[in-house]
Amino acid sequence: MAKYDKATIEELIDGTIDFFQLKEMLSSFKDPGRFDTYLEILQERVPWEDRILLPYSLHLYVVQKSNGQRIIKCDCGHEFCEAHDNWKLHALIHVRETDEKLQVLYPELLAPDPQWQVIREYYCPGCASQLEVESVTPWYPVLHDFDPDIDGFYEEWLGRPVPQPSGKSR
Amino acid sequence: MGNRKTQILAIDAGGTMTDTFIIDDRGEFVVGKAQTTPGDESVGLLYSAEDALSLWNMKVEDAFPQLLTGVYSGTAMLNRLVSRKGRKVGLIVNRGLEDFHRMGRSIQSYLGYSYSDRLHINTHRYDPPLVPREWTRGVTERVDLFGNVVIPLYEQEVAPAVRELVAAGVEAIVISFLHSYKNPIHERRARDIVQETLDTLESDIPIFASVDYYPVRKETPRTNTTIIEAYAADPSRRTLELVNERVKEKGANFDIRVMASHGGTISIKANELARTLVSGPIGGVVGGRYLGQSLGLKNIVCSDIGGTSFDIALINQGDFSIDTSPDMARLVLSLPLVAMDSVGAGTGSFVRVDPYTKSIVLGPDSAGYRVGVCYPDGGLDTITVSDCHVVLGLINPNNFLGGQVKLDRQRAYDAVKAQLAAPLGLSVEAASFGVIELLEAQLRNYLESLVMGKGYSPTQFSCFSYGGGGPLHTAGYVKGLGFEDVLVPAWAAGFSAFGCGAADFEYRYDKTLDINVGYQATENVRADAAEALQGAWDELTEKVRDEFDKNGFASSAVQLRLNFRMQYQGQLNDLEIESPLAALSGATDWDKLADTFEDVYARVYARAARSPELGYTVTGAIVRGSVEIPKPKIPEEPYEGEIPNTAAFQGQRQVYWDGEFLMADIWEMEALKAGNRVRAFAVIESPATTFVIPPGFEAVLDTHRIFHLRQVSEGR
To answer: What is the rounded CA–CA span in Å between residue B679 and residue B710?
Structure first.
């Protein structure tokens, strides 16, 4: 069974890994310890102490507060909302819905017609990192696109209970 | 000893080791190994030959003068290509299409991948192009697909392009224009201007116009192949010359020939050297055809199991088929290649348990020369099929490669237990036997689907089984398929080398044509078609004769075979057919070609599928020219009776088979005589291969040192 050292997983996270090593990893069965190594690296890199339960998307994590609450948190430390809530509705949103704003990105004839299509950009209120971009029709709702079953993931896939906040029992 | 009549030298120069096979007049062979010497491959080659001959107590100086012929195949060119260490090549293409080479074809992003990786798009990758964009220049011109000049060649654009490329330091220039196979006028004119410009620059870098090399349809394969000629093949010519010189210095009386993709061997002076890029497995198919000719067998399935793959090719009516757009080194090419099908399953395939489904997974990667966990020096942790053989007792750990490589049974046993038996909850032996059964079932399905998929039945074919790992599994993968006969040559492990030695000295040139003749066409149309095809044959015949001329063969010594590719108009697949006529003139000759096509079509597909009302298209002309050369003799021995000599009997060994330990008779392959019948349960051992006769089978050795394996009962 494949087993990779921490440095390899760090290269994988940073995207600096050599392609042929990456190809071999992709073509092999996943190493059983991957999730923990991955989480350990992410935890080391964030400047705050809350425990990461699950990487959520680029810059975002589901963390566990000391009171047991699960929160979506940016790596800058900004806390968006409760884990089951739609974090996008708590972000700063920039909508490119005019020709002028769209043509900052695309040349005139290659830009979408804003009557049909707009571009929504989501930013972190804490650090202004761009977290998500959607290209949608103007009336399209802000979908809640990822609502992970964290308990199910830990118990049924990893085969262990979700870590408990220190000093608390379930 | 020391008085062997050496016949054939076959050299396989790999990236790390150079293998030398020397075959004598009995078909027996010795294998020598030495480290490859990349600077001058001839050094490693001679060490390797010395190593081989030492087994016969012979010296190179005694053995080489007796040799009849020598064939080289090597991976130096392939390595140069794969590691992108070829010449700096400049490319001249149509203006506006300067990016087509680096864009390549999307299939190139997953060529050579396993099936699961082909579906797993994250693994796909485009290799760096052979010619980067900055050494590519566009020149305005356009010839359409009918060969009409749509835009004339802007001649004034050629010289500046050449000057820029030379200033950039390129070491060769390739020219490839759209549809130049159809109308070569622009490409040839551009080539001449490039030459003139180089002359004024006092530069002697070589020029490669695609039309002079591979005048065939599809620009990416044609351009790739022409670039390879400039990039990797031509620079390898010096290596081959050195090999030739050194072999001659030691007394050889022949010129070394090189195995080429079309199944013939060519001179090291050949114009199109890129087709020697291929090596290895096609040798066995060529050997299969030769052996079939000698034995009077016309329909043969050639099957080869090595350490990494299972390769199958069909020989039909005495000839193999040719794939005209194969791929090598993850590039689509326009070379004629002996058609073969491969699956990544061999004796070195890794064996794993899928952690999610708990099923056994074989390969697709393999241990190669590192054998398995049973070979401590190989440094492997993951078990292979070979480890299972060792556990079961099918491979004698003390007699692997004639005892040169000592295997550790306990190591294999422990590893199979930890990685396979324990997770599956089976005994170590049962788990190992399961692996062998799974492998053989996969091979059997693959073999059957291949034969049936081409519209044939195994009962029409004889099956040749060879390769180092072939005879171990022959019984398993032919079981129940009903082949007419199953033949295992005693020299199975050296069969590819034998095949290289048996290959014709043959050139083959292809040209794309589009000759359309409708249903009930007028006499004039049919006569013109015959004339156009004959014109292409004349052009290619000239090329073939020129090549033989370089080696001093008069044109009268060259035997020509004219082939054409034909299809019904509008259909997608053409058939390559040998012309029944040596020259064409007039409408009646055309009709004979069409009749031949109808016959072949009926044989390959079905009589009822013939559709003359669609009309015909000739898609290509092919000329094959060969000259007489010495070939290895098929061994011939007197019949000695059914009962093997006791000297051949090596005692018994416990082997686990299908749920229980059985005592297997161990025979020494070399000591068995013509006529001997070996009954199950038996293992016939030789230094390079192991032949298993499982319950339900028996094998008889004929007077040509070929075993015939027969199923005598349903077995157990």
So the answer is: 10
Count CB neighbours of A33 within 10 A: 14
pTM of the full predicted structure? 0.86
| Chain A environment of B116 (Cβ under 8 Å) | 27
Q: Where does the pLDDT of residue B113 fall: very low under 50, low under 70, confident under 90, or very high at 90 and above?
A: confident
Q: What is the pLDDT of residues B469-480, one digit of tens each?
A: 889 999 999 999
* Cis-peptide into A20, omega within 30 deg: no
* Structural domain that includes position A20: 1-45
B201-247 pLDDT, tens digit per residue, is 999 999 999 999 999 999 999 999 999 999 999 888 888 898 999 99
Are A29 and B352 in contact (CB < 8 Å)? yes
**pLDDT tens per residue, range B354-409:** 888 888 998 888 887 788 899 988 888 999 999 999 999 998 888 777 677 788 99
Would A88 be classed as within a structural domain? no
Q: Count of domains in chain A?
A: 1
CA dihedral (B511, B536, B339, B516) positive or negative? positive
Q: Which residues contact B683 (CB under 8 A, 6 or more apart)?
A: B394, B396, B653, B655, B664, B665, B666, B667, B690, B691, B692, B693
Work out the burial of residue B27: count CB atoms within 10 Å of its CB; fewer than 13 is exposed, 13-18 middle, 19 or more buried. buried
Dist CA A134 CA A16 (whole Å): 27
DSSP letter string, B59-74: -HHHHGGG--EEEEEE
Q: Give the residue among B438, B376, B386, B387 at the shortest CA–CA distance from B417.
A: B387
In a domain, A136, yes or no: no
Gap between the Cα atoms of B215 and B181, Å rounded? 4
Residues of chain A contacting residue B356, judged by C-beta atoms under 8 Å apart: 29
A34 lies in a domain? yes
B-chain residues near A29 (CB < 8 A): 352, 354-356
Q: Which domains does chain B have, with CATH numbers?
A: 84-232 (3.40.50), 505-627 (3.30.1490)
Tell me if A29 and B114 make a contact (CB, 8 A cut-off). no
Residue of A3, A20, A27 to mutate, testing the B interface (most B Cβ within 10 Å of its Cβ):
A27
With contact defined as beta carbons under 8 Å apart, do B335 and B266 qualify? no
Instruction: Indicate yes or no: CB of A32 within 8 angstroms of CB of B123.
Output: no
Is there a contact between B307 and B375 (Cβ–Cβ < 8 Å)?
Answer: no
With CB atoms and an 8 Å threshold, state whether B123 touches A26. Answer: yes
Q: At B171, list the tokens.
A: 């070491």
Contacts across the A-B interface (CB distance below 8 Å) = 21
CA distance B46 to B54: 12
* Residue range B447-474: mean pLDDT, rounded: 89
What pLDDT score was predicted for residue A138?
A: 94
Give the DSSP letter string of B532-590. Answer: HHHHHHHHHHHHHHHHHHHTT--GGGPEEEEEEEEEETT-S--EEEE-S-SS--SHHHH
With contact defined as beta carbons under 8 Å apart, do B153 and B177 qualify?
no
Q: Which of B110, B116, B123, B354 to mutate to test the interface with A (most CBs of A within 10 A)?
A: B123
Nearest to B472 by CA among B397, B394, B405: B394
Q: What's the complex ipTM?
A: 0.80
Residue A81 lies in a domain: no
Rounded to the nearest integer, the mean pLDDT of chain B is 90
The answer for residues whose C-beta is within 8 angstroms of residue B368's C-beta and 6 or more apart is: B307, B308, B348
Rounded Cα distance between B178 and B140, Å, is 11
Question: Which of the four pLDDT bands, split at 50, 70 and 90, describes residue A168?
Answer: very low
pLDDT for B355 equals 84
- Euclidean distance between CA atoms B173 and B195, whole angstroms: 10
> Which pLDDT band holds residue A113 (cuts at 50, 70, 90)?
very high
d(CA A67, CA B25): 87
Euclidean distance between CA atoms B480 and B445, whole angstroms = 11
- How many angstroms away from the CA of B623 is the closest CA of chain A? 42
